[in-house]
Specification:
The chain is an alpha/beta fold. It contains 5 helices and 6 strands. Strand 1, helix 1 and strand 2 form a beta-alpha-beta unit.
Length: about 140
């Protein structure tokens, strides 16, 4: 118990993000875009483990690189949607390689997509709930 008259401050827990990528430069861009201390970021280089991680842990969002390992971002997003219920599903964001890949994000069931190179404001909007494809001056 705290002493009488002391003010106790409780820090709200940072939102937790699972980043599924095997490319160091993508991980560095995401970390730089979100800033230190705003998000707790957990890196997962093996996309085959993503569904298990999400079903056994708690994440506010999952960001998946389109070109992750042999599985690919679209397959990871689909696996995450199948493994979770709407009620317990984190926000799913797909990192696209080009504007022409927008249809892949829609077909996969991603909640939002960001086109690489990563725009910090665009990634933050995608994580906050803006259902858009963001990047390279293209928005829907």
């Amino acid at each position: 118990m705290e002493g009488y008259g002391q003010t106790v401050f409780y820090r709200a827990r940072m939102p937790k993000l699972l980043l599924v990528t095997d490319a160091d430069w993508v991980a560095n861009e995401v970390q730089a875009a979100l800033g230190i201390g705003d998000w707790e970021i957990e890196l997962l280089p093996d996309p085959a483990l993503a569904a298990e991680k999400v079903t056994t842990g708690f994440y506010h969002a999952v960001v998946v690189d389109m070109q992750v390992a042999a599985m690919g971002g679209m397959a990871v997003i689909r696996a995450l949607r199948q493994a979770t219920t709407d009620r317990h599903r984190p926000r799913l964001v797909l990192l696209l390689d080009r504007v022409a890949d927008r249809f892949i994000a829609k077909r996969s069931g991603a909640d939002a997509a960001v086109i690489k190179p990563i725009n910090a404001a665009g990634l933050r909007r995608a994580l906050e709930g803006v259902p858009a494809v963001v990047g390279r001056g293209e928005e829907e």
